[in-house]
Structure formats: structure tokens, C-alpha cells
């Protein structure tokens, strides 16, 4: 009874504290320059977009820039046509069309928009081109960054960042030039005579944004800031064409010498050279499968094709492919998702074309004088006063004839033809008179008909109200 139960100490040593990072620190990527068929297409496409962006605002058309957004006057000049706030429904339709177009292209070809036409890709392409020309190849850039600061390093870094800032500044000036006439903006900037301090602010803002996004952040914009990178995967399916690694052909990967029968060694076509990783602007290994970081730029395809040519293997180990094709199945181009997006896009395009074709560049508003219901003229006619607000939204001046209908014998007092300059608004006081015998009631609905004298197709009808005396007046 006096025996005791043995006691064992089971207390565990307190584990050392650990620090968990919420965000992974960025590892700088040094993409290797590569040439190939897809890069030729990509280079031509990006330079064409650059030429359009920097060149359109220098093309004059009938006294205006080819593209000019005149915010103070609420006018938007696009390729010879002036749009007003009344036309904003066209902008909404255009944005919806662009969205459906992006969905349609993504369903078929994945993130081809990102790789070939995205502005972030285009400006990063320019900045990387500067890197390659100033600091050298990928290995040279890596060595330069880890080397101590010398005169050569300071000079190269200064030249590179100077060119970055020049491109960023010219990008900002060009962007602001779409809202502030470029031929006035440039001298005004350098002589400090810009009409508003906002011009300086936006030039500075877009210079900094371009310099940071294309020079420093680069792939971080694509990976973390761009919403398209996050939701585009929901539009993918097994028939979407994307940059893919043919694992059936490439595995098992391994190094070998040229001319060796790699099949006898039990190896696939992948020589594990990592060229596809070295050229990737987002730093991924496409051999790991489809990843949201892939922007579909095809740099890895061209790099792999170059290695395949050297080894004497067929091209296409990395290629644009679908999941079904890699599995040996048939790829379906026409499927519910792609057909639906395509039809929606075509419908919106048709609606825009129809509305543009039936758009009349005239807007009018009749404002009745509320200070006086009516007055009687010297010859006994009943008169109502109005203010017609006429907007000539065309790029040419027009003379407009104003007529009134709705009451027998109704006509305008005085002039009925008015000239309005191009892209301008004019307020015109008019008086409508009606013989008293035509007025059986005290209120009538009337209609003003405004027609261009030189082009009868330019017609606008606006409704208003005519008030006369009650019976027994």
C-alpha cells in the first residue's frame, strides 16, 4: 500500500520562434534576349502599336489632331468625327464590345493579349531592349549588378536610367497631348506657360508611373496588380490554346550530347538546358504546367525551338497547344463558350455600326419662356417665346432652317435660318405666332424641325408646348 506510481516528465522543449513572411520578397528576373518566328511577330506588333500611340496625335485633320479629347469643351475628336457627351452611349457600347472581344480571344488563345498587345508588355519590352543594349546580355547584367560600384558601372546605370526616364517622359507628354494640343503642349511645358498646373502634374505622374511600372515593377504588375491575370483562368478550358510543354515527348528530361541516341538512354527530347526559364519575363518554368503567371509571349517557344534545331530534334516541344491535343484528343474550336462570346461581340459591333450610320450630328433643345404664358401681337396673333439651344456636332459649319408644326398656321416670327459654326453651340431666341382662330384649346403640343440647308439628311425634331388663352379670353 505504501508504493508510489512512477512519475514521468513529459514536458516538451519550447520550440524556437519562427517568423512567417506574408509576402514573398521579389527576386529580380533577368530575361535573356531570344530571336525567333514568334518574337518577330511580337516585335512588329509592339512597334506598330508604339508608332500609333506616339504618331496619331501628330497627324492633323481639318485643323484638329487626328485624336483629341477636348475636355474643357466636352468634345472628342476621333478620326475626323466629333463626339459629344450625348454620344457617351457609344463609348459604353465600345467598352462592352472590347470586353466581349477580350473574353472571346482568351477563350480561344489564352493570354495572347498580354503577350502581344498589352501596354505593360509593350513598355516593358522597350525598357528591356534598353537594358540589353546598355548593360549587355543576361549574364553580363547579372555580373554588373553584383559587381562593386566602379566608374563603368555608374556610367552604364546612369545611361540606362536616363534612357528610361526619357522614354517615360515622352510617354507622359504624348498621353497628355491627347487632352492638350501637342503642338501647344511641348513649347508651353518648356516655357512654363501651360494653361493649367494640371498639365505639369499629369506629365510628372505618368512619367513616374511609366518609369516605375516598366522599369522596376515589370512582371509584378502582371502577377499582382492586373485583375485580368486573376480572372482569365475561368475562361480557360481543355480546348484553349496556350503555351504548353509536351510532357509526353519531353520527359524524362536530361542532358546529353548532340548525336547521342537519347531514346536508348531512356530520355525524352528535353535536354534540361533551362533556356525556357532564362528567357521568361515572369520567371516561371513552363515545364511545370499551365500557370497564371504565363503571359503567352512565346519567348520560351522560340528559345526551345532554337535548341531543338541545334540538337536535330523536331520543333514544338514547347508550343501553342491545348490540353486535349497534348492528350491526343481532338481540339474543338466551336464550343458554347467561344461561340457565345463571339456572337455577343459581333452583335455589339453591329449595334455600334448601325448607331454610327444613323447618328445625326445635331442636337437641339427648346426651352419655353416661363416668365410669360403668351402675349398678343399687334395684329392679334398669339405668341409664345422660346430659346432654341442648337448644337452643331459636325466638323463643318451649317446653316439650319427652323420650322414649326403641330398647329395650323403656326410660324416663326422673323428669321428662320441660322448659321452655326462647326462643333459649337448657339442659343437662339425665337417666337412662334399662331392665328387665334386656330386655337380651340389652351395647350398644344408642337414640334420644331431643324434641317441643315446644305444637307437635308441632317434633321432633328424636338417637342415643346404652346400655350394660348382659355375660351372667353
From TrEMBL:
Keywords: 4Fe-4S, Electron transport, Iron, Iron-sulfur, Membrane, Metal-binding, Transmembrane, Transmembrane helix, Transport. GO terms for cellular component: plasma membrane. Pfam families: Fer4_18 (PF13746), Fer4_5 (PF12801), FixG_C (PF11614). InterPro entries: 4Fe4S_Fe-S-bd, 4Fe4S_Fe_S_CS, Cyt_c_oxidase_cbb3_FixG, Electron_Trans/Redox, FixG_C, Helical_ferredxn, Ig-like_fold. One of its GO terms (molecular function) is 4 iron, 4 sulfur cluster binding. Residues 261-289 form the 4Fe-4S ferredoxin-type domain. The chain crosses the membrane at residues 44-61, 88-109, 163-180, 200-217, 339-357. NCBIfam families: ccoG_rdxA_fixG. This is Cytochrome c oxidase accessory protein CcoG. It comes from Thermohahella caldifontis. The lineage of its organism: Bacteria, Pseudomonadati, Pseudomonadota, Gammaproteobacteria, Oceanospirillales.
Amino acid at each position: 500500500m505504501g508504493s508510489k506510481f512512477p512519475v514521468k516528465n513529459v514536458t516538451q522543449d519550447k520550440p524556437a520562434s519562427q517568423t512567417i513572411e506574408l509576402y514573398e520578397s521579389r527576386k529580380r528576373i533577368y530575361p535573356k534576349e531570344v530571336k525567333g518566328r514568334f518574337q518577330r511577330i511580337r516585335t512588329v506588333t509592339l512597334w506598330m502599336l508604339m508608332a500609333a500611340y506616339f504618331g496619331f496625335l501628330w497627324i492633323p485633320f481639318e485643323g484638329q489632331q487626328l485624336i483629341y479629347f477636348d475636355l474643357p469643351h466636352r468634345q472628342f475628336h476621333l478620326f475626323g468625327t466629333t463626339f459629344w457627351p450625348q454620344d457617351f452611349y457609344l463609348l459604353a457600347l465600345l467598352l462592352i464590345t472590347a470586353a466581349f472581344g477580350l473574353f472571346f480571344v482568351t477563350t480561344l488563345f489564352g493570354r495572347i493579349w498580354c503577350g502581344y498587345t498589352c501596354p505593360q508588355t509593350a513598355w516593358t519590352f522597350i525598357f528591356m531592349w534598353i537594358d540589353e543594349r546598355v548593360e549587355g546580355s543576361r549574364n553580363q547584367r547579372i555580373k554588373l549588378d553584383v559587381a562593386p560600384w566602379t566608374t563603368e558601372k555608374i556610367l552604364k546605370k546612369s545611361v540606362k536610367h536616363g534612357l528610361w526616364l526619357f522614354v517615360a517622359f515622352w510617354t507622359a507628354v504624348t498621353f497628355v497631348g491627347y487632352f492638350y494640343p501637342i503642338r501647344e503642349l511641348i513649347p508651353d511645358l518648356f516655357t512654363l506657360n501651360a494653361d493649367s498646373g494640371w498639365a505639369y502634374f499629369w506629365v510628372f505622374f505618368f512619367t513616374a508611373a511609366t518609369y516605375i511600372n516598366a522599369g522596376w515593377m515589370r512582371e509584378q504588375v502582371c502577377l499582382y496588380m492586373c485583375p485580368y491575370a486573376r480572372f482569365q483562368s475561368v475562361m480557360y478550358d481543355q480546348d484553349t490554346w496556350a503555351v504548353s510543354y509536351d510532357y509526353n515527348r519531353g520527359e524524362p528530361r536530361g542532358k546529353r550530347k548532340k548525336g547521342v541516341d537519347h531514346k536508348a538512354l531512356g530520355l525524352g527530347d528535353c535536354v534540361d538546358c533551362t533556356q525556357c526559364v532564362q528567357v521568361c519575363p515572369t520567371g516561371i518554368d513552363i515545364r511545370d504546367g499551365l500557370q497564371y503567371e504565363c503571359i503567352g509571349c512565346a519567348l520560351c517557344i522560340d528559345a526551345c525551338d532554337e535548341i531543338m534545331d541545334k540538337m536535330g530534334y523536331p520543333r514544338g516541344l514547347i508550343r501553342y497547344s491545348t490540353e486535349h491535343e497534348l492528350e491526343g484528343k481532338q481540339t474543338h474550336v466551336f464550343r458554347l463558350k467561344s461561340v457565345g462570346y463571339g456572337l455577343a461581340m459581333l452583335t455589339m459591333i453591329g449595334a455600334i455600326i448601325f448607331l454610327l450610320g444613323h447618328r445625326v450630328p445635331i442636337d437641339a433643345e427648346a426651352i419655353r419662356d416661363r416668365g410669360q404664358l403668351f402675349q398678343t401681337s399687334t395684329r392679334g396673333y398669339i405668341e409664345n417665346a422660346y430659346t432654341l439651344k442648337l448644337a452643331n456636332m459636325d466638323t463643318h459649319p451649317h446653316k439650319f432652317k427652323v420650322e414649326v408644326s403641330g398647329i395650323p398656321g403656326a410660324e416663326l416670327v422673323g428669321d428662320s435660318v441660322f448659321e452655326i459654326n462647326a462643333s459649337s453651340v448657339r442659343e437662339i431666341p425665337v417666337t412662334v405666332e399662331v392665328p387665334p382662330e386656330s386655337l380651340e384649346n389652351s395647350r398644344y403640343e408642337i414640334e420644331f424641325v431643324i434641317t441643315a440647308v446644305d444637307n437635308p439628311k441632317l434633321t432633328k425634331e424636338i417637342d415643346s408646348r404652346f400655350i394660348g388663352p382659355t375660351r372667353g379670353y
